Amino acid sequence: MSTVAVSPKTETPRHAAFVRVTHWLTFVAFIALLITGAEIVISHPRFYWGETGNVNMQPLFTIHIPSSRDTVPTGYGYVMPDQNGWSRYLHFESAWLLVLTGLIYIVAGLWTGHFLRNLLPPRGERGVRAHWRSFTAHFRRSAPGAAQPYNALQRTTYIVVIFVLFPLIIWTGLALSPAFNSAFPFAVNVLGGRQSARTLHFFISGALLLFLLVHIAMVVLSGFRSRMRAMITGHAAIPDEERP
Amino acid sequence: MNSSTTQNPTQSPAESPTRISRRKLITGGLATVAGASGLWTADRLARRYGLIPPDHRGFFGAGETLTYAAQRLLTVHSLAREFPRSMISKAPFANEVAPPNAAFKAHQANGFRDWRLVVDGMVAHPLSLSLSDLRSMPSRSQITEVVCEEGWSYIAEWIGTPLHEVLREAEPLPQVRYIFYDSIEHNSWDSLDMADALHPQTFLTWGMNDGDLPVRHGGPLRMRVPRQLGYKSLKYVVHLTATDSMKKFGKGLGSVSPEYGYAWYAGI
Question: What is the dihedral of CA B70, A172, A22, B266, to 10 degrees?
Fold first, then answer.
């Protein structure tokens, strides 16, 4: 951790203010969505493909956990407490926070050239080999230092999370709303139906959870305090007296 | 105005944290005024066009209001998806209800002949309709999906009298904003705004899949609101009240659902 390069305070911050603010708002919204989403799944831990699905129908797969409804056959002799009321209220409130924060981030990111400069892999580093290089570098104990720009693998991962996974999770979530589907029927029909949309929503949230876990692991491995400092204050520098 | 101190960006010193420049003060002030007046205008418009749900207070009120307002604006003329007959679910799932009370059992025993739908409140013509009265009114059918907030769903054909046909006979007064509806079950009531109450797919349903509506699916009379989740489709409806405000019903949150933690508006 002492390999962290010290950048003087007057330098351009590692993370722009809009990146830091939207990062933490997204973090709060995403954690709330994750917890409440899991609570809602508990009321029916069965997944289907197609338009319809219920306990009288063959599921695509079942998560073997107890349910908060006694109408769902789980094999467990007890029923979990119902948490869907506040979970649903908080799920949609957090979804609004996520979507509005995301819009600010996308507009500011395009305006400032953030995506082109910091996230799109530079020309010549867009191939498989460059990504493989940055992947294997992690196992040679040379994880990216604080002052270095993101490597190809990081950049591509962030691009996929921001421009593929988040739009997909919002789309599949909206496709679960009967009112939204009445206005935009194609949004659910092209996904193969309502239950397909629900199953996809579940898998995409799993992909986002996987990203979150790897992201936190990388933050810890590359120096938790300096990375947190960079995302809170904008500067990775650690004052001398605090360094190990 | 003297702007010489900020003319040359290379010479302007880094903003000292204790001193706010005039430019920052003016832009910040203008942004605050714009934001505040924007919120005030949004609030006025939302109230005027009925975009504030009855359960808009509390920690979840902001999200609930955004969802309701956005979906109201998006779904002005939209119809819930209807499906071909071939997609009707072979084994529709009926969610459990509380054991029927004595009043319901008495109605069931004589084949619901004395079942009444009372329509009162702010209407020109209060009504008391039997099931055969309802059946003699213009009826419609729709093949739509019941979507439970838990995640499951099924498709059925629903046959009934559109609520707007009943309201046309009762003639709600111009100031009516909500239609309250009550079940024969204890503490089981809800309400619709006029957009959903007058919606062509909102039925007082008495038939299902070419037969009478089974009791487990809400028979003899169920409110069917296909643009909202299943819990708005209240079973065993006996009473409609036209009202200009939901404040006087229960805790004033629009339905009994928010009293149990669930949202009044169930478009999602």
Answer: 40
- Is the complex ipTM more than 0.85? yes
Amino acid at B34: A
Token pair listed for B60 = 């979840």
Q: Give the whole-angstrom CA distance, residue B196 versus residue B176.
A: 13
- CB neighbours of residue A15 within 10 Å: 18
Which of residues 200 through 239 in chain B touch A, CB cutoff 8 A?
Answer: 226-229
CA–CA min distance B227, chain A (Å)? 5
Q: What would the mean pLDDT of A92-107 be, rounded to a whole number?
A: 97
Residue A87: how many CB atoms within 10 A of its CB?
Answer: 23
A61, β-bridge pairs: A47
**pLDDT per residue as tens digits for the range A176-226:** 999 999 999 999 999 999 999 999 999 999 999 999 999 999 999 888 998
> Cα–Cα distance between B18 and B3 in angstroms, integer?
20
Q: Please list every residue in chain B whose beta carbon sits closer than 8 Å to the beta carbon of residue A194.
A: 145, 147, 153
Give the DSSP H/E element, type plus range, for residue B214.
none
H or E stretch covering A46: strand A46-47
- A13 touches A234 (CB < 8 A): yes
User: Cα distance from A221 to chain B (closest Cα, Å)?
Assistant: 34
Partners of B157 in beta bridges: B143
Alpha carbon distances (Å) from B227 to A118, B71, B230, B233: 43, 10, 9, 10
Whether the link from the prior residue into B162 is cis, omega within 30° of 0, is no
User: What are the backbone angles phi and psi of residue B109, rounded to the nearest 5°?
Assistant: -65, -30
